[in-house]
């Protein structure tokens, strides 16, 4: 939330009614939002629709938007809410499912552990293993790791996005890391045994 | 145990984390930097932006319209308050409809009602009304002249033609309107700039003077006809289950159910086309027809082209304000071809029918009732 941030300037220009700033805002964030949306859905059109609606809302309510805000966080949060609503609507229409599980789940991650990036083969093996373990974590825990490590959001922001309290958010991360560590130790032993 | 107290420290409550957990955290963090993101192409990105812009401009348009609807609503309120002024086009159709509804009583003679509620009776069966001097002077039956105030806001005149009468109206722009029996026409006492609008109940033939910048609108209860300059017939009788337009020349644009929330439809028709709006099914159908069949009434005859007898008699009873009964109901569907002269006296017209069909007619003691029946003597 630094004020010299050019992204934040765009935001300020946008809420003061500058129409160029609106298209700048779209240019800056559309790709981020699309990538983010595709984490939760596989339906490209649905994600596009949600981004469309998000920008329509932004434009419509621009006079009432807060000035002091982490723009990326705000946009991600709004898009996730839109995706959640769309998801709930579509699952309400599906009668083949009886469970009331309507929460928005994050998709499995595809990591690309490049040889150039990590030269140590053993470390690479461990990372491959960890990648599998991360995908085996409960959805909510994986989502937190993603928001924290990939989107660089802080706990307050993550908690706000996921609609949980900050302590709960911390507990989730803690539990996730504990789990990963446990699995990793097991994996490491497995690796050592193999080598 | 070493602890990082850096702001970027990913670990919550670091004091509770073990070294192994911290390392797992660092590794996870590293992994997440390699996460493959789904990307959309620049084309897709631009396309989505265009959609956003389009939606916004459409919403602007809509809120603009909402503004005008609100404006029109306040205008209507003023009208209800008795001001009787009209400045806004969108609702003038409804205003004229209200004016028409006010003139409930159907007079014995053709009647012209002015904006100041003066009523003028026109004695002739075929009367004529001509507006001159931009509507300030009205010549009635080429004998008397009436003056009316045309300055200021738009006000309406109403011409009511009862069954059994006809009238030809010439408006200040030169447009001629033949009003058939049982019709009511509401029109502005003078035409303002840019728009010419009338409201019709019943049947009328229009010969509209061409004016490129001032479209002429004929409103009926469920169809609106828009023209620039052309000739056409509109039939919108209350006791018919349909509203129809027949085009003689030029082109017209029809809008059906303009006041419906959904389903307002625009259709263009070409000469020789008859467009019929079916009220029950709310559908508009067009067909190619022999135009004379529908417009010949204004020239004093009926052009018949396999017209069912029931249909013909319905027209005649409107034209002459009489009741005509068919003794044998099966005759209703018998069709006729040819032209039928509409004589001054119904009896002469009925004689014409009798001659060509072999039916005979009888006048009932009540002189406005006739019975048509099969002749017992075969010709």
TrEMBL record, chain A:
Pfam families: Sigma70_r4_2. Signal peptide: none annotated. GO terms for cellular component: DNA-directed RNA polymerase complex. Residues 134-180 form the RNA polymerase sigma factor 70 region 4 type domain. Keywords: DNA-directed RNA polymerase, Sigma factor, Transcription, Transcription regulation. The keyword Cytoplasm does not apply. Belongs to the sigma-70 factor family. ECF subfamily. This is DNA-directed RNA polymerase sigma-70 factor. It comes from Dyadobacter endophyticus.
From TrEMBL, chain B:
The keyword Oxidoreductase does not apply. Residues 163-253 form the FecR protein domain. The chain crosses the membrane at residues 67-88. Residues 302-366 form the Protein FecR C-terminal domain. Keywords: Membrane, Transmembrane, Transmembrane helix. Gene3D superfamilies: 2.60.120.1440, 3.55.50.30. This is Anti-sigma factor. It comes from Dyadobacter endophyticus. The lineage of its organism: Bacteria, Pseudomonadati, Bacteroidota, Cytophagia, Cytophagales.
């Amino acid at each position: 939330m630094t004020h010299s941030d050019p992204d934040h300037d765009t935001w300020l220009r946008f809420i003061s009614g500058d129409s160029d700033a609106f298209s700048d805002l779209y240019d800056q964030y559309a790709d981020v939002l699309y990538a983010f949306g595709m984490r939760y859905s596989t339906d490209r059109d649905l994600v596009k629709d949600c981004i469309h609606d998000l920008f329509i809302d932004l434009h419509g309510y621009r006079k009432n938007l807060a000035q002091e805000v982490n723009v990326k966080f705000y946009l991600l949060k709004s898009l996730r809410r839109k995706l959640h609503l769309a998801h709930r609507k579509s699952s309400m229409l599906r009668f083949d499912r009886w469970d009331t599980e309507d929460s928005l789940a994050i998709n499995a991650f595809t990591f690309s552990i490049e040889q150039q990036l990590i030269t140590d083969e053993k470390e690479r093996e461990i990372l491959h293993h960890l990648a599998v373990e991360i995908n085996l974590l409960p959805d909510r825990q994986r989502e937190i790791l993603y928001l924290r490590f990939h989107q660089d959001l802080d706990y307050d922001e993550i908690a706000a996005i996921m609609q949980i309290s900050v302590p709960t958010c911390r507990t989730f991360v803690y539990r996730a890391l504990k789990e990963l560590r446990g699995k990793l130790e097991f994996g490491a032993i497995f690796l050592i045994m193999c080598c | 145990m070493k602890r990082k107290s850096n702001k970027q420290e990913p670990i919550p409550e670091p004091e509770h984390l073990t070294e192994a957990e911290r390392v797992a955290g660092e590794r996870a963090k590293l992994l997440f930097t390699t996460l493959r993101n789904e990307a959309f192409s620049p084309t897709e990105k631009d396309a989505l932006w265009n959609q956003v812009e389009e939606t916004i401009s459409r919403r602007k348009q809509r809120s603009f319209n909402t503004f005008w609807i609100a404006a029109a609503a306040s205008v209507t309120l003023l009208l209800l308050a008795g001001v009787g002024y009209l400045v806004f086009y969108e609702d003038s159709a409804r205003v004229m409809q209200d004016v028409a509804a006010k003139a409930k009583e159907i007079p014995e003679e053709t009647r012209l009602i002015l904006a100041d509620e003066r009523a003028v009776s026109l004695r002739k069966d075929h009367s004529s009304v001509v507006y001159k001097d931009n509507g300030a002077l009205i010549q009635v039956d080429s004998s008397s002249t009436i003056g009316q105030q045309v300055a200021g806001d738009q006000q309406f005149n109403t011409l009511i033609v009862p069954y059994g009468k006809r009238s030809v109206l010439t408006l200040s722009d030169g447009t001629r309107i033949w009003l058939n029996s049982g019709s009511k026409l509401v029109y502005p006492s003078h035409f303002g700039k840019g728009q010419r609008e009338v409201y019709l109940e019943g049947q009328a033939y229009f010969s509209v003077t061409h004016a490129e910048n001032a479209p002429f609108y004929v409103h009926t209860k469920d169809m609106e006809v828009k023209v620039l300059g052309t000739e056409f017939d509109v039939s919108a009788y209350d006791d018919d289950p349909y509203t129809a337009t027949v085009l003689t020349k030029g082109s017209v644009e029809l809008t059906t159910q303009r006041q419906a929330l959904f389903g307002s439809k625009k259709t263009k028709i070409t000469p020789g086309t008859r467009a019929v709006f079916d009220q029950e099914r709310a559908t508009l159908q067009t067909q190619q027809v022999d135009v004379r069949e529908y417009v010949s009434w204004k020239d004093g005859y009926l052009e018949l082209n396999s017209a069912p007898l029931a249909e013909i008699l319905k027209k005649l009873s409107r034209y002459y304000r009489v009741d005509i009964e068919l003794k044998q109901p099966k005759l209703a569907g018998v069709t006729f071809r040819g032209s039928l002269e509409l004589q001054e006296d119904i009896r002469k017209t009925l004689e014409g029918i009798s001659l060509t069909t072999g039916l005979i007619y009888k006048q009932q003691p009540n002189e406005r009732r006739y019975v048509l029946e099969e002749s017992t003597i075969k010709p």
